[in-house]
Amino acid sequence: MKSTYRVLAYLVLLLVMVQAADLAFGFFGMGTWVESGHSLTKSTLEDNRSGVPGEAGLALHSIIGQFLIPLTSLALVVVSVFAHIEGGGRWAALILCDVVVQVLLAFVSFGVPVIGVLHGLNAFLLLWLAMTAARAATGSMRREPAAQAASAAV
């Protein structure tokens, strides 16, 4: 279970990094589209045949952020109950709470774009939380064999 916890924590970290890459792809692609003389409107994006480069990046950013990261975070909380990692439940709960905040910030940002700055900054907090949770699992896994060897020697 400790390995599963660690994998899920690293998966949250990886998914946040992929989201950042998807966002960059989306905006650079759309920037190239506009610089090439095309107009970018809502109807352009809704037209599946428009061929706006980077459009898939923004779609993937949304899918990962609204579904994959929340599900992975929820699974991390469930696994933390069984993993018996010191502080593991706390880190998992903090990650899940931060994911909820992150999704709320994203939705609020559509109405108040300046809030998008907080959404971007909060992603760094989520990365740190996921890394800390993964390191807690690694430390727990390293201490476990030493504890077992000590108890076997007695």
Task: Tally the structural domains.
Answer: 1
Unreliable segments of 5+ consecutive residues: none
Number of strands: 0
Q: What's the alpha carbon Rg, rounded to whole Å?
A: 20 Å
Give the CA-based shape: elongated
Q: What structural class is derived from the secondary structure elements?
A: mainly alpha
Which percent bin holds the helix content? over 70%
**First CA to last CA: what distance?**
26 Å
Major sheet size, sense and barrel closure: none
Mean pLDDT: 90
- Counted by DSSP, the helix tally is 5
The helix-strand sequence is HHHHH
> What is the percentage of strand-forming residues?
under 5%
Description of the structure:
This protein is mainly α. It has one domain (2-143). 84% of the residues lie in helices and 0% in strands. It has five helices and no strands. Helix 1 (2-35) runs antiparallel to helix 5 (116-153) and helix 4 runs antiparallel to helix 5 (116-153). It is elongated, with a radius of gyration of 20 Å. It starts with a helix and ends with a helix. The mean pLDDT is 90.
Please describe the structure with a list of short key phrases separated by commas or semicolons.
154 residues; mainly alpha; 5 helices; elongated
